[in-house]
Each structure stands twice: as C-alpha cells, then as structure tokens.
C-alpha cells in the first residue's frame, strides 16, 4: 500500500503516523480499465478513493442520457468523500478514462479518527471550501463565457504548463466538460487552428499562441 500517497492527500495530511497506519491497514488497491465504473450516481457510499495512476471522470447524467463531466481526477486527487459526512448517496458517477489504479479507503476507520480528534475536521472544511470555490468558478464560466471561451479554458487546464500535450479524454468527454455539444466544441477548436493559436494532430495538440488562447478564455 502506498502510504506516502495517502500522506500527501489534503484530506489526510494532518493525520499522525499511527492514524495513517490505521487507514492503510483497511485500504485496498483496485485497478480499472477505460470505461469501468468506480461507482454510480445514487449508490450507497462506503469509501473514498485516491487516484494512484490514470484519470477518473466525475460525471452527471441528465434524464435523457446526456452527460456533463463535472471534474477530472488525476494522480493524488481524492474523491468520494462526501458520503463520509452526509451519509447520502453518491452525487455523481465516477468512471475511468484510461487504465487507472485507485487506493480506496473505507469510511469506518476515518470516522473513528475524526470522532477522536475533531480538530482534524478543519482539513475537511478546507477541502470542501476549495470544492465550493471550483463550483462557483464553473458556474461563472457557464454564465459569462460562451462555448468557444469555455473550450479555450478547458484546453488550457488540460495542457497545464506544457505547450504540447495529448488530450487525455475523447472529444465527447471534452464536450461534457465544456457543457456543449461535440459539434460546437469541434467548431471552436477548428477556429483556434484557423487562427494559428493551436496545432492539432488527432488527439495531440500544440499551443502556438498561449496569450491569445488565454485572452479568449477570460
């Protein structure tokens, strides 16, 4: 079990060595192939997950089957913690976007630790506050940015500091992140290529004018 991975998770960073050992003793490592579902929306929660490798999509589905990807979880990220505190069903679906390995931590030892040391819950508050800020930012994007602006912003987020990157998700999944149809997202990307802000070869991209792409994302 990767003890160091768990120690670096914000939610668990303040646990002492004995508490980490208690968590590690009951944690399990699971591997998922692309498309495998980690848990479904509404499912009864019993564990949280830390990404060891790969990428996990957190997605919501409409009644007619359309999907909106609300978060992309990468190595070191934690998800599935909400049920630990409110006891309600999963708020979204978690699905592997590529072969992924997760360290899954059962709620029971964590509840025992938090009940014994309530001051640790400040770390939980910090994490949830950051999630709320991200939600506020995503809501603002949906109101103030058009599809082209949101597409530019998502591409920059996926690229990080690199100018050359491979899109880790499909065009359909990117459209889910943007909150628009695949056709409109493809049209936005085609406009970036035409303006020579990016170069595209299948799922590989090269940012050639980051300044203009950033300006379009604001």
Outline of the structure:
The protein is 44% helix and 24% strand. By secondary structure, the protein is α+β, with helices and mostly antiparallel strands.
Description:
The chain has 218 residues and is an alpha+beta fold. It has helices spanning 3-7, 17-26, 82-86, 107-116, 121-144, 147-159, 171-178, 182-194, 210-216, and strands spanning 28-32, 37-39, 47-53, 56-61, 67-73, 78-79, 93-96, 100-106, 164-166, 198-201, 204-207. The protein has a 4-stranded antiparallel beta sheet with strand order 1-8-3-6. A 4-stranded antiparallel beta sheet has the order 2-7-4-5. Strands 9-11-10 form a 3-stranded antiparallel beta sheet. Helix 6 crosses helix 7 (171-178) and helix 6 (147-159) packs across helix 8 (182-194). The longest helix has 24 residues, at 121-144. The radius of gyration is 19 Å and the shape is elongated. It starts with a helix and ends with a helix. The relative contact order is 0.14.
Query: Strand arrangement, largest sheet?
Result: 1-8-3-6
Q: Kindly state the percentage of residues in helix.
A: 40-55%
Quick one: overall form? elongated
SS content category: alpha+beta
How much is the radius of gyration in Å? Answer: 19 Å
Main sheet record: 4 strands, antiparallel
User: What is the CATH architecture assignment of the largest domain?
Assistant: Sandwich
> Quick one: CATH class of the largest domain?
Mainly Beta
């Amino acid at each position: 079990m990767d003890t160091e991975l768990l120690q670096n998770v914000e939610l668990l960073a303040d646990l002492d060595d004995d508490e980490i050992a208690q968590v590690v003793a009951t944690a399990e490592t699971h591997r998922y192939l692309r498309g495998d579902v980690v848990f479904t929306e509404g499912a009864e929660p019993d564990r949280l997950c830390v990404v060891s490798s790969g990428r996990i999509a957190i997605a919501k589905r409409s009644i007619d089957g359309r999907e909106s990807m609300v978060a992309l979880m990468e190595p070191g990220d934690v998800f599935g913690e909400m049920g630990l505190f409110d006891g309600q069903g999963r708020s979204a679906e978690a699905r592997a976007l590529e072969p992924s390995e997760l360290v899954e931590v059962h709620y029971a030892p964590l509840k025992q630790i938090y009940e014994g040391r309530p001051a640790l819950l400040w770390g939980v508050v910090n994490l949830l506050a950051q999630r709320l800020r991200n939600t506020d930012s995503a809501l603002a994007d949906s109101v103030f940015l058009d599809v082209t602006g949101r597409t530019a912003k998502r591409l920059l987020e996926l690229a990080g500091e690199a100018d050359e990157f491979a899109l880790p998700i499909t065009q359909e999944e990117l459209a889910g992140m943007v909150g628009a149809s695949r056709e409109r997202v493809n049209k936005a990307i085609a406009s970036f290529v035409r303006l020579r802000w990016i170069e595209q070869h299948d799922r590989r991209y090269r940012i050639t004018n980051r300044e203009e792409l950033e300006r379009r994302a604001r």
